[in-house]
């Protein structure tokens, strides 16, 4: 029995930005590059980064299976949802969980983890 190949993208010492295995893409938590933006701006940046990674895996946001969203502040929920709702394709909303969490850097307002079919 042969092992299934695991393809890793943007491998670092601590983590890879994405791994693809057995037809599924697993994205690391994505955060905004410009942390000075408000929650809607940070969320839009994160969603753009997700689009880019999914494209590299040969898939897109219509094939997302699960999204895990981490917010630093519960008050940012409406602003995050505004960016999310504008981004998710109609009829393709994935399963999703949103939690309030202390993120690794205080300037980050949102982090999103995605699992998608390839």
Automatic annotation (TrEMBL):
Recorded hits in Pfam families, A to Z, give: Ribonuc_L-PSP
InterPro entries found in the cross-reference section: RidA_CS, RutC-like_sf, YjgF/YER057c/UK114, YoaB-like
By its UniProt entry, which Gene3D superfamilies does this protein fall under? RutC-like (3.30.1330.40)
Q: Which family does it belong to?
A: Belongs to the RutC family.
Q: Which PANTHER family match?
A: PTHR47328, RUTC FAMILY PROTEIN YOAB
Q: What is the recorded name of this protein?
A: RidA family protein
Print the organism lineage: Bacteria, Pseudomonadati, Pseudomonadota, Betaproteobacteria, Burkholderiales
